[in-house]
Amino acid sequence: MALLFLANFIPAIGYSQNNDAGYVRQKQKTNNTKKVEAIPPWAATHNYNATAHVYFPDYYTYYDPKRGGYVFWDNGKYTFTPALPPFLEKVDLRKSRVKILKGLSLDMHPEQNYPYYMKLYPADHENSMVPVPIPGNPAR
């Protein structure tokens, strides 16, 4: 008899807690949730709203809003990092030259066409701290 009583009582407790106006259901976090990235600090200066890739021609570096980070040349290939690359840590990107690559799908990886962007937007200065891609090398 006691078992029957408990079997009927336990579901009622669960029902009242889940449906009572005083309780708020918490969404479970899953590995499939889309990560929302903050707009980078330099974005406002360049009227950038994170809807396109950005190329920093003087640093041979791209900002990829879909991946939420930077793509730069390192050890003979382009590398992704969510943080600023080490050679950009002391650079004020609000004052840097940028090229917003409008019309390029966010599914694309502009670093795969880096010889085109290097030619279209040549660097304005020589900076020995910036790794320079060598056109003709695979951009993987």
Task: Describe the secondary-structure layout.
Elements: H1 2-19, E1 53-56, E2 61-64, E3 69-74, E4 77-81, E5 99-101, H2 114-120
Antiparallel strand pairs: 1-2, 1-5, 2-3, 3-4
Compact overview of the structure:
The chain is of the alpha+beta class.
Provide an overview of this structure.
The protein is α+β, with helices and mostly antiparallel strands and 140 residues long. It has a domain at 44-120. It has helices at residues 2-19, 114-120; strands at 53-56, 61-64, 69-74, 77-81, 99-101. It has a five-stranded antiparallel β-sheet with strand order 4-3-2-1-5, with no helix packed on it. β3 and β4 (77-81) form a beta hairpin. The longest helix is centred in the first third of the chain and has 18 residues, at 2-19. The radius of gyration is 25 Å and the shape is globular.
